[in-house]
Amino acid sequence: MLIYGDAYRCEEAVSLRSGAILASDPNTEQHSLFGDEIDPSSLVVELSSASLFSSTRHFVVRRAEKVKQKAFSRIIAEALPPQTYLTFVAVDLKGTSPLVKLARKYGTALALPAFKGRDLTQEAARMIAAQGLRLTPSARKALIDRCKGDLLALREETRKLKTFAPERTLDADDVIRLTFSAGEGSIYPLLDSIMDGDLQEAAKRLASSHDDAGRVFSALIRQITRILMVRTLMDERLNAAKIASVLGLPTWIVRRSIAQAGKHSAQRLAAALDLAIDLDLSVKNGGIRPDDALLKLVLFLTAPLLPAPGHARRSQPSPAGAG
Hints:
By secondary structure, the protein is α/β, with parallel strands linked by helices. It has helices at 7-24, 40-48, 69-76, 98-106, 117-130, 137-146, 151-164, 172-178, 188-195, 199-208, 213-235, 240-247, 251-261, 266-284, 290-302; strands at 2-5, 29-34, 57-62, 84-91, 109-112.
């Protein structure tokens, strides 16, 4: 089964499906996988093999849009043993995608568009009521506005507010004081979009991020360093298993890094690392704000062209950029 569309509705659908499977067998094995990390051949073998611990298994593969069409076809066409369930989840996948067509050919494809307008407000109200959270009308509106229509974020903020005030009715000031303007999320999708060279996606994630710019900058330097090491070993014609052994990293991380390293040359990554080090020193010396340093590094990594001569190794940021 392929579930695709809005992130919140997809997670709700997966939860309902998992709940139904668990209801039929409380000892169900549940496996959470990610499309950009799975080894298709290994997954096919695992799907066709019986478990030693449970007669019922449920495999959930998120980020299914990252699975190559050929690999997806091979996996979804697999004849599953009895009591083995396979669910693919893809956010914002278009209905015209070959993956959707394959899912319909071999099973089921469930499209779940995002709630909009009145439907969004009604779903938000239902969620708040389900948590037993007491809000004034202005507080409810403030909460929905703070989460910017992101129902996954709203769900988490609602749970947090319920824990904070299980009995008290909250007003708008309470909501504004206790919630973020958007939901918390992992830093890794932001780092991935930067290393993938996707400026539009990176800018969108930066705009909605509540992480400290200095923390993101440091994490990005570590990401560049790892990708550079992988790129260097790729240029030495080492395979993923050998790279994982040399660097002491899990194979799935190496496979993910190889995909990103393939979008940059070692020279460009080295130049990015040099620029990052120079910017880091400038931040620590008070010459540039962390936010500006992060933006400079993001723009460098997502530039479609090769580094300009002014950004060669050990180049210094322009003093005019400080501020």
